[in-house]
Amino acid sequence: MEGERVVVTTDLSKNAAPAAVTANQLAKKLGVEVELFHVFDLSQRGSGEKIRVLRDPELRARAEERVRRWYEEVVGELPDDVTLKSGAPSEEIRDRAAADDVACLVIGMSGRGAWNRLIFGSTVLKVASRPPCPTAVVHPDSHRVSDEMTLGVGADFSPASDAALKEAVWLAKRLDAAIRIVHATALPATTVIHAGELPPGMETTEVVNWAQDSMDAFVRRHRDLLEGVDYRAKVVTDHPVAGLRSFVEDQGIDWMILGHRTASQRGGATTVKGKWIQRMNCSTFLVPTSRTT
Questions:
Q1: What letter would DSSP give residue 112?
Q2: What is the pTM of this model?
C-alpha cells in the first residue's frame, strides 16, 4: 500500500461519517495524511450554482471550509487537505485515486438494507467495479481499524488472490493482525459422495477435494510471505457470498480483503464481488492486481 495519503470521499451526509472515521484511523496507523474528496455532481439539480462555487475563489474557500468542519465534527480533528471537484462522482473519484500519491481510497456505503442496495450502486459500485488502488468500502456497523484485528482473505487461487494476500500480510504486520484465508465454493447438484454415507458436514466430494488441494497449494506457494503471521486457511462449502458472510460471523472477521482482476482478466468473479459489496457484513478492502505492494 504505497503512497503518502488516504483519500476519503464524502457527500457531507451522516452516512459518510463511518468512512471519515475509518480514514482517520487508517491514516494514523499507516503514518500518512488524510485528504477529504468532495464532488459536486453536475447530473443533479443546481449544476450552474455548483460550477459558480468552484469558479469563485471566495465561494470555493467557503465550501472547502464547510467540508473541513464536517470532518472535524465527525472525527474531532481537521483533515490534512480538501479537494473539491465537479462532474460524475465515480469518474472523478477514480481519477484522483489512480494517482501515485494515493495509498488507499476510502468510500462509505450509502445506507443500510434494501434502500442501500437501490442507491448504493450509483457511485460506490461503479468505483468498486474497477478499483484504481486499494479501496476500502466501509460498512456502517463494522469498520474499526485497530491493532490485533482479524483480517479475512478471499481466495479463488488466481493472481487476484495473490494480490489480496500480499496486501493482507502487509497490513497484518503493521497492525499485529491475524489472517484467515477462505475459499467458498457451492457443491453442485450432481455431487458424488465417495466415502459413503457420512454425518452431515463430513462429506468428501470431488469439488471439496479440489478446493482443499488448491488451498493447500496456495498456502505452500506463499509460505515465505506468511512467515511470522498468525494465519489459518479454510474451505467453506457454500455459495461464495453466503459462504463469506458465514465465515465473517464464525471467525470474527473485522475486514475482508479481496483481490480484483484487471479489465483484461475479468470473468465471473466480478459479479461475485459486486454482490458481496452489496451484501457484505463487514468492511472490505478491494485490491487491484496492478497496484500491490
A1: S
A2: 0.85
